[in-house]
Amino acid sequence: MKIAFNNYLYESIDNLPFPPKGSIPIPSGYTRMYHQTDPAKVPSILKDGLQISKSRGKLVGDPVGIWASDNPKGFYGDSSHLDTIEFKIPTVEYNQLLGHSLIERDVPPEDILAVHSDWQNTVNYMVKNNMIDQVKNGDFDYLMNKEYEHASDYDQYTKAIQYVKSHY
User: pTM of this prediction?
Assistant: First the structure.
């Protein structure tokens, strides 16, 4: 199965609908990087790229730039409330600083490889574990109830279940 994302067309990994982190090929001479951000900012990032002018470093006394990591867990580690932007930069621009990198230029939209959200990981899990029929039959609808004991994951489960029900 072929999947298109941001001008990339790639083979699906294990027929999963969303590319796992690090699975989209990059050209030789490039380094794969990960930047975490508020999900509400993703549409403008996909349109305009990661921009230094939007950096919050100056607000907290950090250097101004795009903070990123070559670790798939990203700069902040695993974080369920942030989306991860996967992108590529020329390796010659890779400047590791305390285990992370400060990209000192804008990252254009065409260098963005994928956006990873927890709800997408949940969809991939459901597909990989043959849970689609159960989801479509409503077996997991209770996860979309804000009163459920794991309500902190409400958005993640709601988006995943709605995606499965509308795409399968």
Answer: 0.78
